[in-house]
Amino acid sequence: MPASDQPSEGNDEAVRTRLEDRRRIAAFLDAKAAEAGSAQNTLLAYGRDLRDFSDWLSARGARIQTVTRDEIEDYLLHCDTQGLSRATRARRLSAIRQLTRFALEEDWREDDPAGRIAGPGRAKRLPKTLDRAEVQAMFDALPDIGRNQTERTRNLALVELIYATGMRVSELVSLPVNACRGNPAALLIRGKGGVERMVPLNGAARAALAAWLKLRDDAPMESPLGRLVAGRGARWLFPAPSREGHMARQAMNGLMNQLAVAAGIDPARVSPHVMRHAFATHLLEGGADLRAIQMLLGHSDLGTTEIYTHVVDGRMRELVMNHHPLAHPPQKDDGE
To answer: Of the candidates 167, 171, 57, 29, which has an alpha carbon nearest to the alpha carbon of residue 114?
Structure first.
């Protein structure tokens, strides 16, 4: 047998090492899913990041169980030279930190090499938002969006709810109908990681919700909406012929694009997430407390909410300067 065709012990060892690393990554992800209730998208991102890290280590004869701080820093430098964004590099370091901490807790190793590595941080990127006049223009355009009264009533409920609550689009389209009955003054929202929060409804949102519920519940069985309600969409506020049985996020994106065009706004500036930003921004402009906005948005970290302080414009600064007691130190008496 030619030498090049003979099995290599080194290659076999590399395969065994990679498989062992994959088993440890899988154990970590299982623990995250069971103990922290991490969202599926978060777990998928961690899995991709850690597999990339494991492959990079394996190519250099290293392994997760014995990885050093220098090797982790070399990997982060590798990510930087590949042109990965600051946010992606920060996320990868976060995944590695959690894995090495897990390894320490599980006695796979005796130290935590990633614990003290400083991350690249996140760029202070201001969120896209809309001013109040633009949001009003979109509401004014709503009566023209929809092929029939059913769609127009549904569309009004969707837009009123997302602007009144700041819900994520995934939270909005998957609202259970039973959580919305009885003319509620607030809705219980299940957010990221299964964390629940209460969001109040204003009068306009409650009226739009009631109108949609009545139309939904009274839909004739032979109508498209009636068939949806009688089938897989029975449990959802916004039923649709999808695999899940409720409206898809892409459909909500399409609605926002139509509204933007009808309102004379660049569609690139409008999305369900931008409406969430508008909700938070307009609350802050109106004097709402940042901590309250954090709770309404379902942010786990106040630092995420603080980015909305960019709305503090000249008028608000003037308000502080004119009315805060320390803004005007007492004048000294000329006779002193």
So the answer is: 57
Of the two residues 331 and 98, the one the predictor is more confident about is: 98
CA angle at 191 for the pair 182 and 276, rounded to the nearest 5°: 85
Tell me, yes or no, if 192 is annotated catalytic.
Answer: yes
Question: For residue 101, what are its two tokens?
Answer: 């901490």
Catalytic residue among 190, 192, 227, 249: 192
Question: Which among 89, 91, 276, 282 is annotated as catalytic?
Answer: 276
User: CA 98, CA 53: separation in Å to the nearest integer?
Assistant: 13
Residue extent(s) of CATH 1.10.443.10 domains in the chain: 132-319
Q: Does 75 qualify as catalytic in the annotation?
A: no
The residue annotated as part of the active site, out of 18, 190, 232, 273, is 273
CA distance 265 to 137: 9
Question: pLDDT tens-digit profile of 38-73?
Answer: 567 778 888 999 999 999 998 888 888 889 998 998
Rounded Cα distance between 315 and 168, Å, is 30
- Whether the full predicted model's pTM is greater than 0.85, yes or no, is no
- For helices 290-297 and 272-285, the axis angle rounded to 10 degrees is 160
CA–CA dist 101, 65 (Å, integer): 11
Q: Is 246 a catalytic residue?
A: no
Outline which parts of the chain fall under CATH 1.10.150.130: 10-105
Task: Express each pLDDT in 127-154 by its tens digit.
Answer: 678 889 999 999 999 999 999 999 999 9
Among candidate residues 32, 89, 154, 168, the one labeled active-site is 168
Cα-based angle 60, 68, 33 (whole degrees, multiple of 5): 95
Asked about 324 being catalytic, the answer comes back as no
Return d(Cα 95, Cα 32) in angstroms, integer: 11
Domain 132-319 has CATH 3.40.1080.10: no
Q: How far apart are CA 257 and CA 280, in angstroms?
A: 21
CATH of domain 10-105: 1.10.150.130
Active site residue 310: no
